[in-house]
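thread: overnight batch results

M.L. [08:02]
morning all. the overnight job finished for the chain we discussed friday. pasting input first so we're all looking at the same thing
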Amino acid sequence: MCFAFGEDIGIDLGTASVIVFKKGSGIVLHEPSVVAIDKNTGRIIAVGEEARQMLGRTPGHIVAIRPLKEGVIADYDTTEKMLSYFIRSIMGNKLFFKPRVIVCIPTGATDVEERAVRQATISSGARQAFIIEEPLAAALGAGINISEATGNMVVDVGGGTTDIAVLSLGGLVCNNSLRIGGDKFDEAIIRYVRRVYNLMIGDRTAEEVKIRVGTAYVTDDNRNRSMEVRGRDLLTGLPKTISITSAESWEAMQEPVEAVIEGVKKVLEVTPPELSADIVNNGIVMTGGGSLLDGLDVLLSKETNLPVHIAEEAICCVAVGTGKALNEMSVISRTRNKGARRVL
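M.L. [08:03]
and the structure it wrote out:
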C-alpha cells in the first residue's frame, strides 16, 4: 500500500452537510453536519447521519446539535471534534502523514470566522489548511474555466448561505453573500404551518415538505401536488395530520426565495458592462442543494431574463471544486480577494 506524503483533501464545510473530496478518489464522504453529545460527560455519541436521526428525539442528557450556522462556525469545539472524526474516518491509519486540507467559506465570512475555520481544521489533524471562497470552488466544480477573461456568474445556494458572484480571470469581480439558504426555506415552512394550521412540525418534516412538494414557481402541473404532514396541534396538544400542497409551500417560502432573487439582481446591477455581455451569452450557473428547489431556476430566469443552468451534481460542486483547486494552487493564492466589489 502506498502511503503518499501529503495526501490532499477538500472539504465543503456546509451548514447542512459536510462533503469531502479526496485527491485520486473523488467524493469519499457526504454526511449531515450534526453531532450528538452526552451533556453530562461531553462524550460524542454519534456524528453525521446517525446523529441527524436523533434530532428532536433525544433524552434529556443527550443533545443533537448542528455546530455550523449560516455557513460559519457557531460552536468551535464541536466543529473541531466533528472535523477530526471525519478526517480520521477518511484517512484511517494514515494520519501519521497529516493531509493538506482546503476548506470552503462563504464570501461574506469575516476575518475572525475565517481564522476559526482554519484553526479548527489544523486542530482536527490537517498538516496545512487553505481557504477558498465558495463561488470559486463552485465554479471549478461546475466545470467553468474561470481563468479566462470571460464573465461567469455563479449562484451557490447552500443550507445556511447563498453566495452570488461574477468571476473573471480566476477571481471574484463582484459578489454578494446572503445568510439565506435551505434552512431558511425550512423555517419559512414551519412558520407557515404553525400560522395557518396551528400545527407544530420539526425541522426534518419541513425539509421533507420542501423536497417532496416544495416549489418556487407554481404551475398548473405542480399546483396540486400534496403530502401528509404530521405534528402537534398547538390548541389541543395532541398529534394531528394535515395535507399541504405545492401552492401552499410556494406561499410559505416566498420571502426567502425573493431575497435570493433580489441578491442576484443586486450583483448584476454592479457588474461591469463587458462582463454583463458575457453573462447574457453564458447564463447563470446554479450550484448547491438549495438550487434543486423545484422551479427556482425557472423563477430566476424569468426575473433576470437570462438563461439559468443547474450544474450537474449540484450538491457536490463545491467539494469537487476544492479538489480541482488543490491541483491549481494559484487559485488558492487568489482567493479571499479583498478587492472584489461586494454588495452590502
